[in-house]
Design goal:
Blueprint lengths: L1 H20 L3 H10 L30 E2 L3 E2 L2 H9 L1 H4 L12 H11 L4
Helix pairs in contact: 1-5, 2-5, 3-5
Length: 114
């Protein structure tokens, strides 16, 4: 019974994240691997997530701002992921050619990180 409650709580959190961000955290996790985000960022649940170029991504959903500039909202995170150079020209984050849905999926995944 306790295991079922824990499993349901996890499903509820995933559902909340999807509704809140418009993305799928499972697909976002796969995209983070495919795009090699861990080569620049420390990512808590990724073995290859040990990069030291960008900020660590643990707890990113609790941060007040993105890139020291944008209020941390799902729409702004998606905007940042799609086109960081248009937000802060010359920063270390490359434009990766993500679609809006891919950026939303990554946002959903990032917002699950503790």
């Amino acid at each position: 019974m306790a295991l079922a409650a824990v499993a349901l709580a996890g499903c509820n959190e995933r559902a909340k994240t999807e509704v809140h961000t418009g993305g799928d955290p499972g697909r976002g996790s796969l995209l983070v691997d495919e795009e090699a985000c861990g080569s620049c960022h420390v990512i808590p649940d990724k073995a290859q997530g040990n990069g030291l170029v960008g900020p660590p991504l643990a707890g990113i959903a609790r941060r007040a701002v993105i890139a020291g500039l944008l209020p941390n909202t799902p729409d702004n995170m998606t905007r940042w992921l799609q086109s960081p150079q248009s937000v802060v020209p010359g920063n270390a984050m490359p434009n990766m050619g993500l679609t809006q849905q891919q950026a939303r999926d990554i946002t959903a995944y990032l917002y699950t990180l503790d």
